Amino acid sequence: MREHVQRTVAGCSVALRKLRSIRRSIPMPVYQTLVVALVLSRLDYGNATLAGILSQLCRHLQAVLNASARSVAGLRRSDHITAMLANFHWLRASERIQFKLATLVYRSLHGPVPRYLSDDLRRVADIPSRRNLQSASSCQLEVPRTHLCR
User: Fold this and answer.
1) Is there a domain that residue 126 lies in?
2) First to last CA, the chain
3) Is residue 150 very low, low, confident or very high in pLDDT (cuts 50, 70, 90)?
4) Do 96 and 127 have their domain in common?
5) Fewer CB within 10 Å, N- or C-terminus of the chain?
6) According to the model, what pLDDT value does residue 124 have?
């Protein structure tokens, strides 16, 4: 995942540098839309696979998100960014990953999705040996056992 994160960060940084050159030529709402479309979409692409990555890698993704918010808001590097992220309704990098994963699981359980996504998801209540347990009344999913090959 390290190489994927590095390439994502590099691509987002290049797009952000190119966008900064036209920042003063276009209205701010248009600039914000371009940042969301060209930078944040790259940041979000395939991020459900990043669940459980090292915090160091997540900090790299967060740095790109912070730079994007600073660019849109016109803030300096030393200015705090938390309020701006909340103002723009942008989630932090780790929260974006969790949200994408939760959305994917929800759609797999409740919506029309490809069969390969929904095949491995089973509710605990649907397992015959667990129907009488207290966990059967919850909305938990079974975590299948995996065998690692070395």
Assistant:
1) yes
2) 19
3) low
4) no
5) C
6) 67
- Domain count of the fold of the chain: 2
Task: Please indicate whether residue 70 or residue 124 has the higher confidence score (pLDDT).
Answer: 70
Q: Give me the residues paired with residue 141 across strands.
A: 123
CA distance 102 to 14: 30
Q: For residue 145, what is the DSSP state?
A: -
The tokens describing 94, both together, are 């780790």
What integer is the mean pLDDT of 95-118? Answer: 85
Q: What are the backbone angles phi and psi of residue 141, rounded to the nearest 5°?
A: -110, 150
**Considering Cα of 28, then 73, then 14, then 57, what sign does the dihedral take?**
negative
Do 86 and 132 reside in the same domain of the chain?
no
Do 93 and 33 sit in the same domain of this protein? yes
CA torsion 75→79→82→86, rounded to 10°?
A: -30
Over residues 2-22, the mean pLDDT reads: 93
Nearest to 48 by CA among 112, 4, 110: 4
> Treating both helix axes as pointing N-terminal to C-terminal, what angle do 2-20 and 55-73 enclose, rounded to 10 degrees?
10
- Tell me which of 48 and 122 has the higher pLDDT: 48
